[in-house]
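[job 4471] stage=fold_predict status=RUNNING
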Amino acid sequence: MIAYFSMEIAVDAQVPTYAGGLGVLAGDMVRAAADLGLPFVAVTLLHRDGYFHQRLDEAGRQREEAVRWNVEGVLEPLAERITVAINGRSVVVRAWRYVVRGSVAAVPVVFLDTDVDDNTPDDRALSHGMYGGSEAYRLAQEIVLGIGGVRMLRALGWTAIQSFHLNEGHSALLIMELLAEHLRAQRRMTVTDEDVAAVRRMCVFTTHTPVPAALDQFAPELAERTLGPSPMSQLMHRCCYNGALNLTYLALNFSHYINGVAMRHAQVSRQMYGGYHVDAITNGVHATTWVSPPFATLFDRDIPGWRRDNFALRYAISLPRPDVWDAHVAAKQRLIQLVNASQGPRFDPSVLTIGFARRATAYKRADLVISDLDRLRRIAAIAHGVQFVFGGKAHPRDEEGKRVIEHVFRAREALRDRVPLAYLEDYNMGDAAVVTAGCDVWLNTPQPPLEASGTSGMKAALNGVPSLSVVDGWWVEGHIEGVTGWAIGEDGTRSPEQPADNAAAAAALYTALEHTVLPTFYGPRDRFIDIMRYAISLNGAFFTAQRMLREYLIKAYHIEEGNDDPGTTAGARSTIAAAAQP
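[job 4471] inference complete, writing structure tokens
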């Protein structure tokens, strides 16, 4: 049995318990596990307030509103209760269940909730916010997720779990609970190297960030006060870094397998975490979730079996060109309708449409393409025009990210008569499915090497949309110039501490647009359609959650498909019904 822990999991567009790429990736991981029939259970927090509704005024100033969603109408309540100690108080945790159904089986997702009558108002609020509040609030949430998550799984009857998969460091305190369990079984209180090894054999850690400052870390005094007596007091040298409790280092020290989420990200992580072996499993997306209806119809007709075997999409190279174009036009029409229903200026379906939608933060550089408006106007005038659709939320405390959105809005007004530009408010999973499938080219301009992976371009590729991207993250592996898309200047080899040369990156972007992308799109259609077919057959077929999860099976979980053991893929098919029912 595999237990997958993540602070956020996007199980459905109507369940706003995700902030962005980390949660959407976690949701795709769960969906792929259900398709493969794995013995899999996922654990996350409830987040009753969701990750806020984004409201943008005419100047692009972001205002956040809580998302009070219908928990009772979507999730199934479970009767079990457990407690965790926070600041010396006993905090009650209950659980809700959401079942993700795949083509082979079902995977339960357990949502942890402290909003119960037995708790104080402050403790009840631990189930409300997401990535907000004080350090003490975040640490308390991570106690609920990690320690409370293990206890809840035990209470629900999941006792034979071979692998605990930590998706980022937020859940690393589950290690302390596993160690405490092991010591109780041994009837000892002193931690030995053998105890550490026993816990390490059960843990898998996926790191997502290439920036040390973004890691979860807490003052030792706060950690000691909040956690109370625990095995951690004997292991501070294994979980502290620069004098602080660092949950990433806790996970690094207690996991037998550690991976980054792309080849380049693993290289950066090995430099960050000297002394730890960090492997690479490049992220992937859930194909049947992100393929648009027009392309799904085409694939069902000409590539039967692609839903069960995503690698079959490599045969897209031979799809009839007119059929590929017709599917794209239908997907693009959905995007045009979405944009034109939300705001002006109105988009023209015949014009090259470039998409850029992801979390609004400075290093993503959403405003790179609008850094020289005069040049952008000249480029649009040379060809038959270009239009841009943007989307994405800035974290409530990310003032630089909010200024990026305002910059895009100012450019929208300045370019109104020459280059149509739209910014979709309150961007979510549903919008992402339409935008990634409906644009003609996907733009990605992060400051290298800060793009750990990136998955939006993978979603676009599944729909025949090529990328125009800085060579960082997954694009290091997916880029073949003029075949699957195009590169922008920088190669991603600089260190995270080096300042970005934004002027050079913008110049390279404008050169690629003017001399390569626009001429290709407005040139002979067959040439552009061939690039679309390569995007599907080379990138869409490979960068899938199905491939990603199979790599985890072999490298991290040590499970091989076809084995009849109940803990493996094949054996799971006879036991998954029981696994889905605690």
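[job 4471] summary: Residues 562-580 have pLDDT under 50 and may be disordered.
[job 4471] exit 0
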